Amino acid sequence: MEDMFDKLSATVTSANNLEALTRPLLELLETATGLESTYLTSIDEANAVQSIRIARNTGELTIPEGLVVPWGDTLCKRCLEQGRRVVSNVSEVWGDSQAAAALGIETYASAPVRGSNGEIIGTLCAAGKNSQKLGSRALSTLNLFSELIAQFIEREQLLAELARANDRLTKAALTDSLTELPNRRALRDELGRLLARAARDSSYILVGMLDFDGFKAVNDQHGHLAGDELLKQCAARLAGVLRGTDMLARMGGDEFAIIGPGPFDEAAGSKAAAELTVRLEEASAGTYSLLDVPVAFRGVSAGIVAIRSVSIDQALELADEVMYRAKQDRRSRNGGGTSRKA
């Protein structure tokens, strides 16, 4: 018995996942009960099925892992409903059980594995082909192990939920809530990585700043909700003409930025920047349905540069300067930015 507790202590303290905990426990449960099959199940009451998650078989009786059976007439369910922990004469007590008859189960022991809310999420079981009485020590071991597994599952679920919550917080910290695009922080992080890679392989990167021409007029004429809708719809159009390796981000207000890897040649980089500028300006121009009101929008002014060997702030400043000149040129050529479609 002392050796068993030593193994139990080592198992509980070293296990880093459910299988690493359960397999040694099943071996110890076999020793405590003398039954040839020990296994852990999960119960999906919504779909009325029971699954064998982890099993240990050392005799003629084989309970295969991955087996899925209807929950309605399992021996585990009968034990729970009748308040039994062990039945040593299954063929007499549950002679109508086809599963027990097919497997030749004569001794059956089961303890529920409960979630933190008391809901039964599985069972820990032991079974054998021969009739066998189980003493109080064996039943205490069964109960103890089922509680240990329940606590471990609860801990795993809590850790998983904490990880999901952390992922949500991380995403929220890097995402613009209106457009669901990356935000300023996310763009600066990615720009830093692109600049570092460009420094290693002597390539250029494309960096652009985008400004919505006439955005204030949309807000003034149609309201801030319409302005928000314009930002969302236009962002979708802009994203539609980008490569999978590009990042479009909202920097704040009606200011957006675009970054992506560029070619190795300076002339090719300048050409790629000019082509991207045209694509973005053409994609963003057109008629938008803003709160069921058609509004003609001239699009964004884009300033795209192909650069390398600069800092993050310098890269954004260079693109911003080119964008500002493009915006001034468009204003001098076209005047106002938006109009209500007749």
UniProtKB/TrEMBL annotation:
Pfam families: GAF_2 (PF13185), GGDEF (PF00990). PROSITE patterns: GGDEF. CDD domains: GGDEF. It comes from the Bacteria. Coiled coil: none annotated. Residues 203-341 form the GGDEF domain. This is Sensor domain-containing diguanylate cyclase. It comes from Pararobbsia silviterrae.
